[in-house]
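FAQ: What does the model actually see?

It sees only this:
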Amino acid sequence: MTFAERLAQARQESGLTQDALAGMLDVSRQTVSKWESGQAQPEAGRIAALADALGTTCDALLRDAAPQTVPVQMTGTNTFSIDWASMYPILGRYQTEMDCARYARQFREMIAEARDTYGYTLEDTVLALKDLFYHTYLEMDGEK
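And it is asked to produce this:
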């Protein structure tokens, strides 16, 4: 099922018309129609608003299959850890395959530059760069 088909189905299941959904998102009905017909795609920033308006999740709109579940383990400090390597095997082996020190230097330089430029905390800087990295991934993934 395509994104357009999932969007149309989610809208219909929510009982909204194209006009009503368009009004909620401050776009035209024609825009919603183009999204549902596959003639256009909403920008990345609208996906969350679409999901909220339709009472669904971004994953449900974007993914063809249900996302995998990840085992979560609680620790004695009321935090949890996720065994990401069991879900993504590359995380268990890239340290021996890549020049990690080189990339770490580049990351430190990017973090330092962003902190100095914008006055963000270390945590805010890393979160902003992580988000930017993810959006870049989505753009590149769309080029397939």
